[in-house]
Amino acid sequence: PATVGVKVLEAKLLFVSNSSDWNNTLVSVTDDTSNYIYNYNLINNSSYKPGYSFGLRIENKLIKEQKYSYGVNFNKFSTGTSYTTSRVIDPFLSSYTNYKAEQSFTTANIFFYKKFLLKISDTTKYRFHLTFGPTFHWIISKPSIENSVSNGYYVKSFINGDFGLEFNNKNYYILYTHYRIGSNFINQTIPINLSTYEIGIMLKARDLF
Hints:
It contains 4 helices and 11 strands; from the N terminus they run αββαββββββαβββα. The chain has helices at residues 2-10, 40-43, 145-149, 205-208; strands spanning 12-27, 38-39, 49-60, 68-83, 87-88, 95-97, 104-118, 126-139, 157-169, 173-184, 192-204. Strands 1, 3, 4, 7, 8, 9, 10 and 11 form an 8-stranded mixed β-sheet that branches. It has a 3-stranded antiparallel β-sheet with strand order 2-6-5. Strand 9 and strand 10 form a beta hairpin. The protein is elongated. The two termini are 31 Å apart. The relative contact order is 0.22.
């Protein structure tokens, strides 16, 4: 039993990750969301805005190839926000919405990826993997003043599906690009979809410390 335990530990590699990302949220607002109103044209923005993340990741290679990975990240999000509905308030001509989503927030997240080796190169030198799996985000930053007052509408967490392509150079470093899409959960009074494009690099922790 002791020997088996050592082999399992030796099969795991710890990486430090750092990435840049681009984010957008899609918000479905109901008419009775809150007592606040916002000019729709001033806050509606379908663009993707930049953010960044850093964290730790464990690559597991129980047999010959890496089969899965898991870890934790801290993320700083800035988002463009698209609103699916608006309303007109007489006698004004402009369109309005009853809710303004957070456009900047910080999360801590955990993730689990299943990995599939693509045999498109000499795998003794370089490896390409497709990855997919869930990520769970918890918002750890404070809400805006408006959402603090309307606490029932403040989004506290997201669950995402993550799809990625990764390039592994003999475990010296890993380059990756991922796409995540998902929605808020636990508090779903206002459905909000979060989508993210991510590009990053991972380095072995023992090479840095």
